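USER: If only I could read backbone structure tokens as easily as an amino acid sequence. It would mean a lot if you studied the pair and described how this chain folds. Here is the record:
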Amino acid sequence: MSKKSIFTILAILILPLVAFWGLTFSQGESNIAEAVDRPQVFKFSSTMCAECKEVEKTFQELLPKYEDKFVYTEVIVDSRNDMKNALIKKHNVTLVPTVVMINSDGSIHKRIENSIPKDEMEEYIKGLH
């Protein structure tokens, strides 16, 4: 086997691995919200989840009233690739819907792993500081 054949075979095997590494490496921490001086609310949901739609409806009603009180981030988890999101790993999200509320000092105010009534969600939001 000639050197040219060996290099060709190596290129065919190695180039896809390098490309894969480059694409997955660049996804890293870019999905993490920047640190802010306001409370944060992270909502993890799926488009195929009935309870997630209930939580979404609740937030659609509450966000206009409280949009200046906290930073809201929605994370959609619909595929295996989405599970690589750094926020999902950081908050140890294993099921949807999950809502993580964080005070402005970085402490966790409340973690909710299901759908709850609108008035209860509003009380938790009011308690953010």
